[in-house]
Amino acid sequence: MNGRQRLGFAMAGFGQNLLHNTVNLYLLVYLVQGLGLSAAGIGVATAIVTAIKVWDAVANLGAGVLVDRTRTRWGRLRPYVLGLALPIGVLGIALFSAPDASEGVRLVYFGVVFALYVTLYTLADVPYWALTAATATDDRDRTLTIAWARTAGTVALAIVTIVGTPLATALGGEGHTNAAGWQRLAIIAAVTGMGLFTLAFVSTKERLDPTPPTPLRESLRFFVADKMLFVMLASGTAAFGRNILAVGGALMALVIFGDEKLFTPLGAALIGGMVVAIMLTPVLLRFTTRKRLTIISTLASGLLFIALWAVGYGNLGLVVALFLANGFAIGVFMVTQTAMVGDVADYGEVLTGVRHDGVCFAGLTFISKLGTALAIVLFGSVVAAVGYHKGVDVTPAMRDGIWAVCTLVPAASCLVSLLPLAVYRVPEADLPRMLAERRAGSAAS
Prior knowledge:
With 445 residues, the protein is an all-alpha fold. It has one domain: Growth Hormone, Chain: A (Up-down Bundle). Helices cover 79% and strands 0% of the residues. Helix 3 (78-95) packs antiparallel against helix 4 and helix 12 (290-311) packs antiparallel against helix 13 (316-352).
């Protein structure tokens, strides 16, 4: 990609994350505070979200197979971005627009709309990230493209985190967050975000694949046989604990610190560290491998989560500082993990002569969605177990339980995720030469 194309691709990621992070960060708060669900309703909503997220994770693999079988005059990937932007935006707004009805009706409505939203979002998300491999000319181009997109997405996360609650409060018109305020926030995020997302279609030009669509059986056989892809899936799934802060951060701030607005400085610190790390990671990769940097950043993140648990939540300044440091470690991981999935796609082409970008990047989004599902069910279960619901008097036991699930679980998750990487064997240094030789041989034949 040239600079203009890379900027357009990054702005598309910015738009995508405006809406999706609004959903990720504030949907639980909307359900609990905006709709005033009962404790039983919270449990049902958690179960619904978890079931749909598991379905979403499985649907990622189907999306990858579908993308690999697609052939159009605009490419395999770009049409999904353009065609799905509008329906995703409409469904994002609908998530924050529950009808004025009984709790049971609202929960049914939420389940149906959420299932549709995550399914269509997946059908657009897999092709978006696969474009980093289908349009890049070399490793440096791919790494820069990923870094720009991750930076833009993280800036969107920062804006949603910092501005989201105050803006929802102002839009609600009552001096505090309410259902109307969250709905209006979702409208702004959906219209702006999905409009920008179409830039991934406008600004990129993927390499058209002249080969016939990959047979379904071959795509599935590749997925089952690719050991390195399974290593990445296992490692990424084990790291699910990192998602707990994303899905429960606002509610954590409300329970532990008594004000969901305090998630703003905590989130700003976490995201600030991520932005700096994402920008610096291409420089760091000049001195080490993607695998090694992934291991270092994951280990650092695990240790920082342990430190958070140890210092407790009594010193807000120290907590903010540790969030900042952890954000840096997470930011490095975000770039290196995506680049390693691109390496797996390249290595698959070296071994088989056929590219399976859709399946490989479906694997990346698969572990992201599955990790979010696991984080939601665990966090929601702890919230229910400690007895928290709207209007209840918060006890020290409630605070301690929620603090533990937000620190110790991510720490253990990070450390366990290092184990599969011990058998990761993609030859990073030799991969460009091997890929060029494979393509030259295929062209000659």
